[in-house]
Every structure is written in structure tokens, then in C-alpha cells.
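User:
Note these C-alpha cells:
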Amino acid sequence: MSTATMMARITFDPNVMGGKACIRGLRVTAGTVLGLLAAGRRPSEITDAYPCLEREDIDAALQYAAWRLEERELPLAGA
């Protein structure tokens, strides 16, 4: 999945879940999906529990998490 495809599925809206990374503007955060995976849930269990989700959404949440781990935040010069 390309970064553009991932970012089409991971959305940010200050009016939805406080601006957290959400799946396609839904009230399901990437963190929720990742937490379920970390707890040992299979993707099929997650899509059964959240019928609004697609398998590609779960893949996008994983890709988003990996991308965020690689991102570095640097302080602004003079700040």
C-alpha cells in the first residue's frame, strides 16, 4: 500500500475523535485498531466487530503506525 493510499484511509478531523488519526473519517481510531491487533485479535475479528471497517483499513492502520515510528520531530531553531 502506498503512502498516498494509506493517508486516504487515515484521516484527521478536529471534529471527529478530537483530531486523532481515524479510519476514513469514522469514529474508529487507528489506535483502537492497533490496540485490538496488539491484544491478539485477528483482522477478521476486528472487521466482524466493526462492520464499517475493511481489511485495507487495518493494513492502513499498521502502515500508519510504522510510518509514525520512523518520523522524527526536531525542535525549531531558536525555539
Notes: The longest helix spans residues 55-70. The two ends are 37 Å apart (CA to CA).
